[in-house]
From TrEMBL:
SMART domains: HTH_LUXR (SM00421). Residues 866-931 form the HTH luxR-type domain. This is Helix-turn-helix transcriptional regulator. GO terms for biological process: regulation of DNA-templated transcription. PANTHER family: DNA-BINDING TRANSCRIPTIONAL ACTIVATOR DEVR_DOSR. One of its GO terms (molecular function) is DNA binding. It comes from Streptomyces antnestii. It holds the Pfam family AAA_16.
Length: 936
């Protein structure tokens, strides 16, 4: 890498392993970086190495290469002191492009306004913001290629890191390149960003000797050998250790300076810097400390234009001893290396650090988030004013999409609260944000913080512990008791207005009840929520009616869900997920699935794993309903990966239950029963009724697939007895057709008819399109009145939503076709049987396909006839087909029928698929088969 007489460190854009502009070593790295810059199109690259190994020098080299190729260069640096300020790092990159932001469309300008606190609106997702950043970069690079350089990326704030990772993976096809320097051994969001990496290792011994001799010629051989041994090829150590050793600091033998074996090299360098810092006067040390805590030293364009950044003064003494450099563009002091900055903070006493933070809070009094950061660090005793400032900063961060910072600030605000109530409330808010992100360890820690004050029954604590207990352990019963008690307590103390904690408790209770599926608990819940009146939000009322007993309370829910979804731009992600659950229960989720599929990637990117997992589960269940079983299995596998990694056991078992249902539908009986047993063994002892009902549904579906109708009937009546629908049994209305078919095939025609009529009396057709289809189908196949059977079948088959439920429609067609064969003759039955067979074949349900094929064979068709073959040909198509079958050409046919050869060709193009053939040679046999079939 390359350096100059004024050797500067990584954090300030300086260089450490070259002398007088000559690169020393690093031939392979130079070659890789040259190829990176010269490569067409956009791309990203991470340089990873230890502190002081020379990453910044390589970044300087990239800048020189790009500048020579006429790239515009924008540099930024992560600052440890700003690692909790949302989008602080992104602002460095985007500040020089503000003029280009004004050229974007209104939507993208609005995104940046929200992120930078210049406008209102919901916080953007990583995906939304990332796309806006990509558009901005593409716009900026349209006239001149652009290079983004990030040093000390490990200190970049989480929000910026997520966006940079998103952008870095999608630069292909642009004129933007992005290179990042990361310090090894320091965890970073870039660790999982999946960007290409170039390791930056230590120098070889030969190159290290060359660098040392060029930078420090004439060293005593003993000192030279000692420095080489201790530096181990680290360029910064090669440059910094010789003066330290040669100066005889502490008056020791040079060899004893490194007597503390086992200490990592960067720590040894910090001792070098620490000795220099301690030798400074008190005022200079205080000045350095304020600069260090405010992130001075990045040296970026955005930093220089930021007038609120602390500017160190009267620090010439520190510059003279090699701790500071002078920024050549504005004359400000900057730290020579990040290790200098961190050492300044480490050698300061706690009181000195608090005083420095207090001074910086005053400097940033007009910046709510930066002021909050410093106030939080300066306070010792509870201070309600400081706590309120932190809470305001958390609200600001949440609006801008900085959930991680919001949790940290709310937690600190709780610590500084003067009353137990305010402390608990703020911890509850922090817990809610963490819970939505699926950060269960963080949630547990916050719960312990709350219960540690003896406030283990606070509403906020109950919300937190309820999330953890339900998601991780499936402990619904104890969570249910606690939530009931917490809601009743809030009601009894006289809550008079809608309250966010109360809303969280209500929604949590409804979610627990959904999984528990316990009638007594639901009835108690309805009674409790009725007593709260208008304190329960309208959306919570939708959840209440849809998630409980949709057969009894579901009328009109579909319309209410549709009205709620009309306000999508203003909905929080967790409300989108909950409304989608309601939509699933009234079988209208397919309308909103495209939005869910767009949203789920965003939620995964931002770490909002509870929302992401809920959405993935919903997408999977809707894919099952729509007959997209391959896609459902892929979605399920993705869901399994997320739930396993993050120990969301309840969602893990729910996913396995849905995968078991898919396996049963596809006739993979062993796999279905394996998953059924796994889920049932976990769910039944815990009282997770939703999952035990699904396991019964797996048993029913698998038995139907096998043709074991007695077993199917026994499983089905385990969910609900014939003639009624067990209250609050989620699967009771959904398995209507299963129970009816199983009863018919086992000689229980009366029970089958009773159950179909019960569905009609319960008004199921008015609740959801799927229930309308299955109710009409059940009525059609159970009545003894042929006219009613035809009428009800017609209502089922022509229902506008029928194609959205292909499995159920195919079963109804199969059953109707069988009846038609027995009552109206085989010719009438064939259309229904062929349509059923084709649907089962397309779905991948082999046992159902064979059953339909056997019925078709019984109707007199012995070949793989398709519905297209039985489609009626028009008179003109039939005449053209007959003439073509006789051997005439298109021209000859056209002359006879006064048509152009092209028109004849178009007619044949339509005839072939109707007959299920692909060539003229097959016409005679196909036409003969149809004629024969029509005469049967």
């Amino acid at each position: 890498m390359h350096g100059r007489e004024s050797v500067r460190g990584e954090g300030s854009g300086g260089t450490v392993e070259s002398v007088f502009g000559t690169i020393i070593g690093r031939e392979s790295e130079q070659e890789a970086l040259s190829a990176f810059v010269a490569a067409p199109g956009g791309r990203a690259l991470v340089l990873r190495g230890d502190a002081g190994v020379g990453k910044s020098a390589l970044l300087d080299h990239v800048v020189e290469l790009a500048t020579a190729e006429n790239h515009r260069v924008i540099r930024a640096a992560g600052v440890e002191a700003e690692s909790e300020l949302p989008f602080a790092g992104l602002h460095q990159f985007l500040y020089p492009l503000l003029t280009s932001i004004d050229r974007l469309d209104d939507a993208h300008r609005g995104v940046f306004d929200v992120v930078f606190g210049r406008g209102g609106g919901a916080p953007p997702s990583v995906m939304t913001l990332g796309i806006a950043v990509l558009d901005l970069l593409s716009l900026a690079a349209s006239q001149q290629p652009l290079l983004l350089v990030l040093d000390d990326g490990q200190w970049l704030d989480t929000s910026s890191t997520e966006v940079c990772g998103f952008v870095g993976r999608r630069l292909t096809g642009s004129s933007v390149k992005f290179v990042v320097g990361l310090r090894s051994g320091v965890p970073s969001g870039f660790d999982t960003a999946a960007l290409p990496e170039l390791p930056v290792t230590t120098l070889s011994e030969k190159v290290a000797e060359r660098l040392l001799d060029m930078r420090h010629p004439g060293l005593d051989p003993q000192i030279r050998r000692l420095v080489l041994d201790e530096a181990q090829g680290n360029p910064l150590a090669l440059l910094e250790l010789p003066p330290y050793v040669h100066g005889g600091l502490a008056g020791r033998n040079p060899e004893k300076l490194f007597g503390y074996t086992g200490i990592p090299l960067p720590l040894r360098l910090q001792q070098v810097y620490g000795a220099r810092i301690k030798s400074l006067g008190e005022l200079v040390r205080a000045e350095l400390l304020r600069g260090a805590l405010d992130g001075v030293g990045a040296g970026t364009a955005a930093d220089r234009t930021r007038s609120t950044r602390y500017r160190m003064r009267d620090a010439d003494e520190a510059a003279a001893c090699g701790l500071l450099d002078i920024d050549p563009l504005n004359g400000d002091f900057v730290f020579r290396h990040p290790l200098v900055r961190s050492t300044v903070v480490q050698v300061a006493t706690p009181n000195e650090r608090r005083a420095a933070h207090a001074a910086l809070a005053q400097v940033h009094r007009d910046d709510v988030e930066r002021r909050a950061t410093h106030l939080a660090a300066s306070a010792i005793d509870p201070d309600e004013q400081v706590a309120a400032t932190l809470e305001a900063a958390a609200d600001s961060a949440t609006r801008r999409g900085g959930a991680v910072a919001a949790v940290a600030w709310l937690t600190r605000a709780a610590e500084l609260s003067e009353s137990r109530e305010e402390r608990s409330r703020r911890l509850g808010s922090a817990t809610h944000v963490a819970a939505q992100a699926g950060q269960l360890d963080q949630v547990r820690q916050l719960v312990r913080s709350d219960t540690g004050s003896g406030n283990n029954d606070s509403p906020a604590s109950v919300v937190a512990s309820g999330y953890v207990a339900s998601l991780e352990d499936g402990d619904l019963r104890s969570s249910q008791r606690q939530v009931f008690a917490a809601i009743e307590s809030m009601r009894d103390v006289g809550v008079r207005e809608p309250n966010e904690v109360l809303t969280r408790l209500v929604d949590l209770l409804l979610g627990i009840n959904l999984y528990a599926s316990d009638e007594d608990a639901w009835e108690r819940t309805h009674e409790l929520l009725d007593s709260l009146g208008d304190l329960v939000s309208s959306r919570s009322r939708v959840y209440q009616d849809a998630w409980g007993d949709v057969g009894r309370r579901g009328a009109g829910v579909g319309e209410r869900v549709e009205r709620a979804f009309a306000g999508l731009p203003d909905l929080e992600p967790w409300d989108v997920a909950r409304l989608s659950v309601a939509a699933y229960h009234v079988d209208t989720l397919s309308r909103y699935r495209p939005y869910l599929q767009r949203t789920v990637d965003r939620e995964v990117e931002t770490g909002a794993l509870v929302n992401a997992t809920t959405m993935l589960l919903l997408i999977m269940m809707d894919q099952i309903t729509a007959g997209e079983w391959d896609e459902a299995e892929r979605t399920g596998q993705r869901c399994l990966e997320l739930t396993t990694t993050h120990r969301h056991t309840l969602f893990l078992l729910h996913t396995q239950a849905q995968l078991g249902l898919v396996a049963a539908l596809r006739g993979r009986i062993n796999r279905a029963r394996e998953l059924q047993a796994t889920v049932d063994a976990w769910a039944r002892p815990r009282g997770v009724g939703l999952l035990t009902q699904i396991t019964d549904a797996i048993g029913t579906t698998a038995a139907l697939a096998e043709g074991d109708y007695e077993a199917a009937y026994l499983h089905a009546i385990g969910i609900t007895p014939p003639g009624t629908f067990t209250p609050y049994a989620h699967q009771a209305p959904r398995t209507l057709l299963d129970l009816v078919e199983a009863a018919l095939h086992t000689g229980r025609a009366q029970q089958a008819r009773t159950h179909a009529l019960a569905a009609q009396r319960a008004g199921l057709p008015h609740i959801s399109p799927r229930l309308a289809l299955t109710t009409y189908g059940a009525l059609a196949i159970t009545t003894t009145d042929l006219t009613e059977a035809d009428h009800m079948f017609h209502r089922a088959e022509t229902h506008p939503a029928a194609p959205h439920f292909p499995y159920e429609l195919a079963r109804i067609r199969l059953a109707h076709g069988i009846r038609q064969r027995h009552t109206q003759g085989p010719k009438t039955a064939r259309r229904f049987l062929i349509q059923a067979m084709e649907t089962f074949e397309r779905l991948g349900a082999p046992t159902w396909t064979e059953r339909a094929r056997a019925e078709l064979k019984a109707s007199g068709l012995t070949t793989h006839t398709t519905s297209a073959q039985l489609a009626e040909l028009t008179w003109q198509e039939r005449r053209i087909a007959d003439l073509a079958a006789s051997g005439l050409t298109n021209k000859e046919i056209g002359e006879r029928m006064h048509l152009s050869p092209r028109t004849v060709s178009s007619h044949l193009y339509r005839v072939f698929p109707k007959l299920g053939i692909t060539s003229r040679a097959a016409l005679r046999d196909a036409l003969g088969k149809i004629s024969g079939d029509q005469n049967v």
